[in-house]
Amino acid sequence: MTRHLMIAGACALALGLSACNKHDETPTTNNPTPDAHPAATVLTPSNETNAQDYVTKAAHADMLEVAAAKVALERSSNADVKAFAKEMVADHTKSSDDLKSALKSAKLALTPPDKLPDDMAKIVDDLKTVDAKDFDKKYMDGQVDAHQDTLDLQTRYAKDGDNADLKAFAEKVATKVQEHLTKAKSIRDALK
Q: What residues make up the domain containing 109?
């Protein structure tokens, strides 16, 4: 009987060790599963928690949207693209005004920039010269990318920013930018 218990114990130990040596087929990471807001799973860069850096990036995003939309209003012949561009001019102009109001409420002596940086100005210049047949696709591809970047910025600042008034502003703006992103994807996907 003792011998049977020893054999059973050895078998159990062997099974346990072999189970320990098996690798789980499921990859494990420290990253949470992405949700509806991909930005929620991306660590906030330290320069985006600072009000000045956030204000600069948010203002540049609005300026890019307005400038690109104005080109689309001139160059596009697609009614959906033109309607979207018109909405971008209105909504991002309002967002710029609301940012200035949020800065006033926060009693922050920060001034949003009034000029696009060179890399963003080049995006607008490229839209002005892209072949007419490729314009709508190029514009809408850019809108999807720009709105995803802006959504990431707004979501991260709303979560980790250093100013409560600006965090509330960013949260509000993120909702609108999500709507724009969804619409931009839909229009882009409908283009041939």
A: 49-190
Q: Which residues contact 57 (CB under 8 A, 6 or more apart)?
A: 48, 153
Q: DSSP assignment, residue 38?
A: G
Q: Which of 64, 36, 75, 82 is nearest to 178 (CA)?
A: 36
CATH number of 146's domain: 1.20.1260.10
Q: Does pLDDT of 24 surpass 90?
A: no
Nearest to 112 by CA among 124, 97, 123: 97
| pTM reported for the whole predicted model | 0.76
Distance CA 74, CA 72 (A): 5
When divided into structural domains, the chain yields a total of 1
One-letter amino acid of 92: H
pLDDT tens, 134-160? 999 999 999 999 999 999 999 999 999
Is there a domain that residue 145 lies in? Answer: yes
What pLDDT does residue 49 have?
83
> In this structure, what token pair is assigned to residue 78?
């697609």
